[in-house]
Amino acid sequence: MSSKRSETAALVKKQRSNAGSNASKGYSRRTASSGMEQSVFRFKDVNFVVGSGKKQRNLLSDITGKVRYGHVLAVMGPSGAGKTTLISALTLDAFYGKPSGKVTLNGVKLTDSVFKQHCYVMKQHDKHWPYLTCRETLQYAAELYNVSAKKDIPLVVEEIIQKMGLSVCSETRCARLSGGQQRRLSIGVALLKQPTLLFLDEPTSGLDAAAAENIMQEIVRVAKEERLIIMCSIHQPSTKVYNGFDEVMILSKGREAFSGPIKTAPTYFDSIGYPIPEQMNPAEHFLDLVNSDFSSPEEVDRILNEWEETNPNRAGSVHGTDNDDDGQKGIAAGLHRNPCTDMMIMFRRHARLIVRDPVLYVGRCIIILVTNVVFGFVYWSARVQEQAQAPNKHFINIWFAGVATNMGVVAVYALNDEFKSILRESKNGMVSPMSYVIAKSVMVLPVIYLTSLFALIIPGFVIQQFPWSSIVPGTLLWSALFFCFENLAECLAVWIDDPIIGMLQFMNFWFMCFLFSGNFLNSEIMYWPFELFYHILPFSYYLRSATYTYLHDIEWDKCVGGPSAGQPICVPSGDPTEVLNSMTFIYSVVDAEDHYLRDIIVILGIAGVFKIVYLIGVFYKTRRVAAIK
């Protein structure tokens, strides 16, 4: 172990861009951060307004501060004070209101591009890939952030695992991690990026006292040794954790009660008549003062007003004045990333997720197989080549495709959860939307065709004795329909934030496809605009070509006596074309002519429309920012 740690230390030292940093204990720094070791983060007169007119409320009012490199600013306050709102506003992520003010990094306005290159935000609620292990999560993050040469990445990952206390769960899947372990894993991923500016929203949430203390000590150490700027919201730190911070900002009712070095806070509150009782945690004392649950609202307002009157120029409350030249100016250019390399990493990661995730693909393959086998046996009598079974042969195609596509509703939920993870990674500059879309789309195509084999080989070609000559066109047609519904699921998962609502919309679409398939109602007698649904929904095109594909080469038995109630199809010659023509009188969607190529193109065209809408949603949401006006 000592040998491994010495190798890690050597690696870190080799890759550090700032020669004055202490490389023996730090993490490897990417070359993208060179020139950003003396940065200053400023925010001035930050306001956040929700509602309008008489219902308008200020959740933040003129919040101002500044943090230099190597310092940690703790934002404290009771529940509802505005801590998370401030972090959301400063990270350009507060979409539920109107943020305003001035936010800069080294004098440059904080934009989405600057954020992705030089910043990282760790949200209050952890979000990891549930079917990746702790080590795999860090491994892929390290590769995507390009923290080191590929051969050295395992050393860097092992160092993070050791420092975050994740050794006991390093090979455990994220879905099985405790809340505290997930929190430590989130911090580990954040530290891998080595950002210039790191936002942490409640980093000790879910941690016990010992773990919280160790993690915060590590965060403070990294800030000083790596010259990072760290701003974190924290609810009620212990005395030891509190004393580790450099500056503190105390909020209440969306206003500042104090902002400055922690060593000056006791003096300030003593000067306004609120000294710290002996042997009391300073953080608890300050929070009790500004919490209207423990102090009267009038008393809290007096403390807030006192700070405003005492510090009219609050921009310099942390370090000097707002315009002092205490750091570098400008933003260093970001590291150029190879799109092909990113895409290959995404291929590997999502291939592993596809294999492991029992819900999204593997599980559905098995369920579709079992369900269609059941239908195959239910329609056992339809396997013979008798004209009386022609309608049943048509209906078995409906069930083989209809039930399978209906199961796409679970994909809406799974893909919604997946996209939320991608949003976080994109926000923090880990992945590019293009790499994700290409990797995911290419990986899914063979999986969809494999699903068609599960759906049709045993149930259709073995049990129902479909002609083996139709296996290729039949499975391709089924894959095209399934692909169409998968694209719909992706589209709904991206555009609708609530997965339950998205699932309901998927079911509505599927039901409309079933209703307007032409199997129950002749499209010619549908009232406008209902007839339009017959032409723009994919089910009718599938049923027409599926029935033709499986029935047009069957050698039917000869029938005598003509059609009857017990046998609606009765063609004396048994000619397949005449049998299909007879079925057309019962099911308007059936056609004796071959429309296979046109139908599959139309189905793929509908799928393409869904894919385009999905792509628009991905690129819109991954680039959307709540810009501060």
From TrEMBL:
It comes from the Eukaryota. Residues 17-31 have a biased composition (Polar residues). It is a multi-pass membrane protein. The chain crosses the membrane at residues 359-382, 394-416, 437-463, 475-496, 508-530, 600-620. The keyword Membrane applies. This is White-brown complex homolog protein 30. Keywords: ATP-binding, Membrane, Nucleotide-binding, Transmembrane, Transmembrane helix, Transport. One of its GO terms (molecular function) is ATP hydrolysis activity. Residues 41-278 form the ABC transporter domain. One of its GO terms (cellular component) is membrane. It comes from Seminavis robusta. Residues 1-31 are annotated as: Disordered. SUPFAM superfamilies: P-loop containing nucleoside triphosphate hydrolases. It is found in: Membrane.
